[in-house]
Amino acid sequence: MEYSVMDQYWIWLSAVEGVGPRRFYQILSLFTDPRDVWENVRDNRLEFLGPKVLASLRKARDERFFFELFARLEQAGVRALTRTSDDYPLRLTRTVDAPPTLYVKGEADLNAEKAFAIVGSRRCTREGRRAAQEFAQVLTREGVTVVSGMAMGADSAAHQGAVEAGGPTIAVLGCGPDVVYPPENQLLYEKVLETGGAVVSEYLPGMPPLSSNFPARNRIISGISRGVLIVEGAKHSGAMITVGCALDQGRDVFAVPGSIYSPMSATPNQLIVDGAYPALSPWEILEHYGWSRRLEERPAPHQQVELSEVEKQAVEPLRQQSLTLSELANITGMSTPSLNSLLTMLELRGIIEKQPGGEYRAYS
After folding, report:
1. Whether the model pTM is above 0.70
2. Mean model confidence pLDDT for the chain
3. What is the distance between the alpha carbons of residues 350 and 345, in angstroms, rounded to a whole number?
4. Residue 183: exposure state from Cβ atoms within 10 A (0-12, 13-18, ≥19)
5. CATH topology assigned to domain 115-289
6. Predicted local distance difference test score (pLDDT) of residue 199
């Protein structure tokens, strides 16, 4: 990839060890541009960096360091996007501590209008994984770019759902964009790229997955997105870091409600109490943003998936007419709690829809 002269110096400065976003912008506030920094690394104005970072900066003021940096990017198949680049996510530029440079593998549009994040616990339940995957599938089929962090659990399920629906999806990593972490996600990593997605990081190629990197990457996940869905999370879950970033950035927060007896539902349930949008189905997210197509244009997932006999018992009457929960319970003979649970899962899968007034109908 070709870079302008100014972009090259920008990338150089952001790649200096110890110069994170805060210091990067502090340095730029004192100099005309990154090239000016290159030419004046002995300037006394840089002493605020402290001895260690200052020594690192002056050591990097070397042509060999400069050219090896860009050779490293090319060898890894990674492109660098500076904050001044047209391809840099516009939403992210409005974040105070936006990464000066993003390192990207893949071709997904980081400025996609319909970009939405799905995150949750690494130790999510089977139901949580299913919800993340099925929400992602429906959103992707409706033209939404799903954003997540490729961690085990809910994140991986969200990416999996997106690639199964044809992608693209964006994975934001806490390591170099060429580093597969966790290693069990090697195939998923490849599928993300094969389906037109992208792997994004603020860290250089080769950067290992240090634990300190992961909280910071959450601001990128929410920063790229219009909103964030929390699928599951125990009390004090790490998913709350993403929620905090989303709120700071003015993003919408949605949460999948769960049983009050499930520890993994503690975070989403509390978020709903605090004002997050409850998400019983992907269509509530789509309709919130005006992204959903008219009902007759929506895909008919029940024709693409096999229903169990119990599911058919509930769905068939809803293909004929709209019914309330109590009406459907009378027809099927199911108990109201069991039927309510079944309808929730069918709605999550995009097979039925809950209409205004509390009636349900199946997509025909």
Report:
1. yes
2. 91
3. 9
4. exposed
5. Rossmann fold (3.40.50)
6. 98
Cα separation, 273 vs 132, whole angstroms: 21
* Cis status of the peptide bond prior to 182, with omega within 30 of 0: yes
Residue 201: the pLDDT is 98
Q: Which of 79-93, 174-188, 296-310 has the lowest mean pLDDT?
A: 296-310
CA distance 132 to 145: 14
Burial 147-168 (b: 16+ CB within 10 A, else e): bbbbbbbbbbbbbbbbbbbebb
User: What average pLDDT score do residues 318-323 get?
Assistant: 87
Mean pLDDT on 318-341 = 89
Separation of alpha carbons 290 and 126, rounded Å: 30
Task: Give the pLDDT mean for 225-250.
Answer: 90
Q: Which of 22, 23, 33, 96 is nearest to 57 (CA)?
A: 23
pLDDT at 220 over 60: yes
The domains spanning 115-289 and 298-362 adopt the same CATH topology: no
Q: Above 50 in pLDDT, residue 301?
A: no
Q: Could you state, in order of their start, the residue ranges of all structural domains in the chain? A: 1-76, 115-289, 298-362
CATH class of residue range 298-362: mainly alpha
Residue 304 scores a pLDDT above 60: no
**CA–CA dist 1, 270 (Å, integer):** 46
* CA atoms of 262 and 104, how far apart (whole Å): 38
163 touches 191 (CB < 8 A) = yes
How far is CA 25 from its chain centroid? Answer: 25
**67 Rama sector, left if φ>0, alpha if ψ -120 to 50, beta otherwise:** alpha
